[in-house]
Amino acid sequence: MRVLFPLGILLLLTIWFNPASNAHAATSAEIPTEGGTWTNPTITIVITPVSNMPWFKASYTYDVNYAIARWAKSIIVYTDAYGSYYLRKLSFVTCVSGVNDTLCGTPDIRVQFIQSFGSESAGLGLTSVRIQQNSGIFAAPTTTTLATYDPTNTTQLTDTDMINIASHEFGHALGLNHATVSVTGDGTFELMFLSYGQAVGNPRNSLESPSTLDMYALANIYDWVSNPSGFSGTGHSATIYSLPPGIAYASEYPYAEQIQSLQNSINQMRLEILIVAVVAGLLLAVALALGILMARKKHVQAQTESWQIVVPPAPAEVFSFLLLR
Ligand SMILES: [Zn+2]
Predict the structure, then answer these.
(1) 191-211 residue pLDDT tens
(2) Deepest in the core among 60, 106, 204, 314, taking most CB within 10 A?
(3) Which pLDDT band, with edges at 50, 70 and 90, does 67 fall under?
(4) In 3D, which of 120, 216, 130 has the Cα closest to residue 172?
(5) 195 C-alpha to center of ligand 1: Å?
(6) Could you report the per-residue pLDDT of 44-57, keeping only the tens digit for each?
(7) Using CA atoms, how far apart are residues 227 and 231, in angstroms rounded to an integer?
């Protein structure tokens, strides 16, 4: 009991101190904004694909569209957990140049592609925003340029890479600058960190999602959306945000992806259980076979010994007796 008591105190201290250290990790991450906002909750984007170029894949157009759609899905996940429901009023209308760009009119954001930014740059994407003087309002168009090859122009982006880079650039187009940390509190990549945390072209790369920190800053940039009369006056000037204590620092993956990743871990667990069962079965079979072999060996030995005992005495004596007669 005397040993258990200090142990109990130690355990309690560990429990008390853990949330404190987590909260500290959460507050150390910061994200500045660019000091601009769009003044219409419907934000329009025109993607201009490249035709007849070997460095361009048609799927990249879909990837950019998908990246923008995932932002809306992450907003649903964030607002379900932490409020700021007005963020759901933001809608992103994506058009493809030469297909349906008339639907987007004069777009807020234009997305174009280049083969590579070149070895002078470390970049994979570039977004240029213009802010109307002293107004905190974006002037259209914001232009986003996406590379399809790494800066050395040797490795082509996978579709996952393109979705990740386009998501990051769209974060800029919405008004976010770069987050100060590369990994969130749940161990996933911070989408808005300056550099891409994964190796371009690796087929095992994972999708990245905006973090709660990115969403928290976004909720501040677009707080005017909660006003029924819409935007008026000026937007917020560039501000540095960090998460308040009540919000855990994590990536906000769309629900469908969360379910898929749970399903994957269940399948992984099932596979591991199956492997353990097969190995245990094999070990049992080997043990049984060894047992049978040992038992047989003993049986043969016992038979040999009893046969030796039964052997009659050497016939030599009988023979000599006969000769003596
Ligand atoms: Zn960036």
Answers:
(1) 999 999 999 999 999 999 999
(2) 60
(3) very high
(4) 130
(5) 7
(6) 999 999 999 999 99
(7) 7
Q: Are residues 125 and 173 in the same domain?
A: yes
pLDDT at 18 over 70: no
Q: Note down the domain range covering 284.
A: 254-325
The verdict on 150 and 299 lying in the same domain is no
50 contacts 162 by C-beta, under 8 angstroms: no
> What is the length of the chain?
325
Q: Is there a single domain that holds both residue 280 and residue 168? A: no
Q: How remote is the CA of residue 173 from the centroid of ligand 1, in Å? A: 10
31 CA from centroid of ligand 1 (Å): 12
Are residues 268 and 225 part of one domain?
Answer: no
pLDDT of residue 121: 82
Say yes or no to pLDDT of 282 above 70.
yes
- Give me the amino acid identity at 136: G
Do 212 and 163 sit in the same domain of this protein?
yes
Q: Give the distance (Å) from ligand 1 centre to CA of residue 282.
A: 54
Give the number of domains in the chain: 2
pTM: 0.79
**8 within domain boundaries:** no
Ligand 1 centroid to 80 CA: how many Å? 27
